[in-house]
C-alpha cells in the first residue's frame, strides 16, 4: 500500500511527496444516541483510514486529488472560500478556510488523498479527512494548535462549512484514538478516559449492511425532540440539564412524570445505555470480554425495541451473530437506519464468520453485506514510508 501511494503521487505530480499523514475512521463500541443527551460514548479508532501525501509548491495553489474520487480541484490561495456543491474536497477546503480565518500563514500544496474506509458506511470518512488535513497543516506550517483545537475546528468544518449538524464524537475519536484503547468520552464536557481494551484473540468485525443509506434526518430529529420532551417532564421535579444526569435507579423513581409511552421508551433507552457504557468500561479494563459482549447485545436490543432506530438489515446481522459460537457480542453502531453493525469475533474464525453472515444476510435481505476485519488502532499521526 505505502510504496504504491508514493508511486501514485509521483505519477500525478511528477515529484516525490515530502510528508505523509494518516487519520483513522472510527466505530462506536457502545453508547448510542447519547451524545445529544449529555452522556458517555465509547468510540475507538480503527485500522482503516485516510492517507494524505503532500508536497509544497511555489504556485500559491492547493491541488486536491484523491484515489477514491474522480473530481479534482486546483484552488488558489485566497482570503476566503465557499463550499463547492457536494464534492469531497469541500472537507479539506473547509479546513483551509478555518486556518485562514484565524490569520494563519499557509502556502500552496500538492495533495493526494487515499482512504480505505468504505464510503457512506458510517465509519466517519468525513471526520477522518477533516482531521488528517487539520493535523497536516498544523505540522507543516508550525501553527501550534492543540489536538483538542484541531478537533473543534474539524467539527466547525462539518457543522458550519459543510452544514451538517453532527456532534464531536467522530472528530474526537479519530484524533485522540490510541492502539488497544477505547475512549470513554463525555460529549458535554469533553473529558475522557482511555480504557484498556485488549481484544485478546478476538478482532472487530465491521459489517456494512450496504442498505442505501441517507441518514433519516427526520427520524433523528424526532428522537432528539422526544428526548427533550422526556427531560422537560423530569425537570418538573428534578434539577437536571440532561437525561444522562441521572442513572437508572433515580430514573425509576421519577419516570412516572413522563406520561407519553413513546417518550418514556426513548428516555429508558438513553439512561440505561449511559449506565451500560460505564459497565462496559469496567468489563474491558477487567478483560472480561464475555460481559462486554453481553452489554453489546443489550445495547442493540434497546436500540431496536425502545429507541427504534435499527431495522431488518441491522437486526439480521445481530441475529446471525447470536447463533455463531465464535462471537462474544454484536450490535448496530452509529445512528442506525442502515449503516454498520460490529461484532467481537475470534480471530481464527473470522473467515467462517464472514462467510456465514454474508450467506445468512443475503438469503434474508436479497443482497450481500460487506465484512471487514479491524483492530483498535491509533489516532491521527504522521507516518514515515521509509
From TrEMBL:
Keywords: ATP-binding, Carbohydrate metabolism, Cytoplasm, Galactose metabolism, Kinase, Magnesium, Metal-binding, Nucleotide-binding, Transferase
Entry's Gene Ontology BP terms: galactose metabolic process
Residues annotated for substrate binding in this entry: 32-35, 220
Keyword Oxidoreductase appears in the UniProt entry: no
Galactokinase N-terminal domain boundaries: 7-56
GO cellular component: cytosol
Active-site residues (renumbered): 170
An MF annotation (GO) of this entry: magnesium ion binding
Reaction catalysed by this enzyme: alpha-D-galactose + ATP = alpha-D-galactose 1-phosphate + ADP + H(+)
Binding, ATP: 66, 120-126
Family matches, as InterPro entries: Galactokinase, Galactokinase_bac, Galactokinase_CS, GalKase_N, GHMP_kinase_C_dom, GHMP_kinase_C_sf, GHMP_kinase_N_dom, GHMP_knse_ATP-bd_CS
Residue ranges of every copy of the GHMP kinase C-terminal domain listed in the record: 281-348
Residues that hold Mg(2+) according to the record: 126, 158
Positions of the GHMP kinase N-terminal domain: 90-177
Subcellular location: Cytoplasm
Pathway: Carbohydrate metabolism; galactose metabolism
SUPFAM superfamilies found in the cross-reference section: GHMP Kinase, C-terminal domain, Ribosomal protein S5 domain 2-like
Record site: Transition state stabilizer: 26
Summary of the function given for this chain in its UniProt record: Catalyzes the transfer of the gamma-phosphate of ATP to D-galactose to form alpha-D-galactose-1-phosphate (Gal-1-P).
HAMAP family: Galactokinase
Protein family membership: Belongs to the GHMP kinase family. GalK subfamily.
Protein known as: Galactokinase
Lineage summary: Bacteria, Pseudomonadati, Bacteroidota, Sphingobacteriia, Sphingobacteriales
Amino acid at each position: 500500500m505505502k510504496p504504491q501511494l508514493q508511486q501514485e503521487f509521483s505519477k500525478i505530480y511528477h515529484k516525490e511527496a515530502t510528508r505523509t499523514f494518516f487519520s483513522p475512521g472510527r466505530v462506536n463500541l457502545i453508547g448510542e444516541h447519547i451524545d445529544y443527551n449529555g452522556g458517555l460514548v465509547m468510540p475507538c479508532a480503527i485500522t482503516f483510514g485516510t492517507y494524505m501525501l503532500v508536497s509544497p509548491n511555489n504556485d500559491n495553489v492547493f491541488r486536491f486529488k484523491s484515489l477514491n474520487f474522480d473530481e479534482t480541484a486546483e484552488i488558489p490561495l485566497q482570503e476566503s472560500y465557499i463550499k463547492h456543491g457536494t464534492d469531497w474536497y469541500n472537507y479539506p477546503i473547509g479546513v483551509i478556510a478555518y486556518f485562514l480565518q484565524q490569520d494563519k500563514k499557509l502556502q500552496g500544496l500538492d495533495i493526494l488523498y487515499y482512504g480505505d474506509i468504505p464510503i457512506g458506511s458510517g465509519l466517519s470518512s468525513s471526520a477522518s479527512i477533516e482531521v488528517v488535513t487539520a493535523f497536516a497543516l498544523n505540522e507543516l506550517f508550525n501553527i501550534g494548535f492543540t489536538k483538542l483545537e484541531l478537533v473543534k475546528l474539524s467539527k466547525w468544518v462539518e457543522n458550519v462549512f459543510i452544514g451538517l449538524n453532527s456532534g464531536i464524537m467522530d472528530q474526537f475519536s479519530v484524533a485522540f484514538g490510541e492502539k488497544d484503547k477505547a475512549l470513554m468520552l463525555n460529549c458535554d464536557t469533553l473529558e475522557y478516559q482511555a480504557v484498556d481494551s485488549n481484544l485478546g484473540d478476538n478482532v472487530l468485525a465491521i459489517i456494512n449492511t450496504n442498505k442505501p443509506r441517507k441518514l433519516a434526518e427526520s427520524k433523528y430529529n424526532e428522537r432528539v425532540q422526544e428526548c427533550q420532551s422526556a427531560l422537560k417532564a423530569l425537570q418538573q421535579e428534578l434539577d437536571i440539564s440532561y437525561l444522562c444526569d441521572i442513572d437508572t435507579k433515580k430514573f425509576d423513581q421519577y419516570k412516572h412524570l413522563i406520561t407519553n409511552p413513546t417518550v418514556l421508551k426513548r428516555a429508558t433507552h438513553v439512561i440505561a445505555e449511559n449506565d451500560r457504557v460505564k459497565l462496559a468500561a469496567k468489563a474491558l479494563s477487567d478483560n472480561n470480554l464475555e460481559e462486554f459482549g453481553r452489554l453489546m447485545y443489550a445495547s442493540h436490543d434497546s436500540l431496536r425495541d425502545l429507541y427504534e432506530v435499527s431495522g431488518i438489515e441491522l437486526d439480521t446481522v445481530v441475529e446471525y451473530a447470536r447463533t455463531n459460537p465464535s462471537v462474544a457480542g454484536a450490535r448496530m453502531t452509529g445512528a442506525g437506519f442502515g449503516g454498520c453493525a460490529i461484532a467481537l469475533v475470534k480471530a481464527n474464525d473470522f473467515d467462517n464468520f464472514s462467510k456465514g453472515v454474508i450467506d445468512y444476510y443475503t438469503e434474508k435481505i436479497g443482497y450481500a453485506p460487506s465484512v471487514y476485519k479491524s483492530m483498535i488502532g491509533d489516532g491521527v499521526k504522521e507516518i514515515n514510508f521509509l
